[in-house]
């Protein structure tokens, strides 16, 4: 028989003690060490100066701070510890372009994990921006211990907001070389995704005479089986959203922006993304991640 809760002994350390709110969530796990992978351990050790033996405690504490702000699945499950951008085929190009002075924005940046990784890999951060509707920036400084040397600017704003209400976003229109947007666009239905894609596209700089072309890089989770509310997403996943409408004058994005794009994308299983499929039992089986690199041609 279970001991009364007041005297029940938990095997988990203090930080991982479950509470009602967390254990009720399908996407919260007491322990997220499986996503504390060697490349993240190295980042925390060498960039943040947190020795290996203290890292598990550290990331669980940070996870709970972030969870207290918003209970996103990737926060509760710990996937935010497993970087996406360094595994994009565009990563070395992005690093080089940043070293050459390019400007980068991450939309829906959360802790800006991959921005810190770029910094660790040698990219300057003074021409980086993180945009998010919710502010996790102090939690990010607590995670990476880089306040004072990490210069990326955080802008708290809704991507879909009226630009007159967000002067900081307005100023960046047409000035950005690289946009990173991961696990954000899939929250909207087709109409919302087209609107969001147009907003994302509007940040990009027009191709230069020297041949520098703006890029939009990221991923979103795709539902491969038709379901009532995801049918359009199923047919035109993000790569399609950023390509098909932009290339067809009859479609909304292309018609309204007059731009042309080249889309490269690949569908990856959760295992290929480095995620434990058991953590996605709350989604439909067979869903995958669509990893994309979209380049502005005109
Ligand atoms: C699932 S999290 C992904 C975070 C991060 N990009 C990653 O891959 O780990 C989605 C992020 O997008 C932000 N977000 C959602 N809607 C937004 C909007 N309309 N404008 C700006 N940020 C938004 C959320 O606050 C959250 O930080």
Automatic annotation (TrEMBL):
Basic and acidic residues compositional bias, start-end: 9-20
Highest rank taxon of the organism: Eukaryota
Residue numbers spanned by region Disordered: 1-22
InterPro entries xref list: Meroterpenoid_MTases, SAM-dependent_MTases_sf
Protein name: Methyltransferase domain-containing protein
Annotated organism of origin: Helicocarpus griseus UAMH5409
Source lineage: Eukaryota, Fungi, Dikarya, Ascomycota, Pezizomycotina
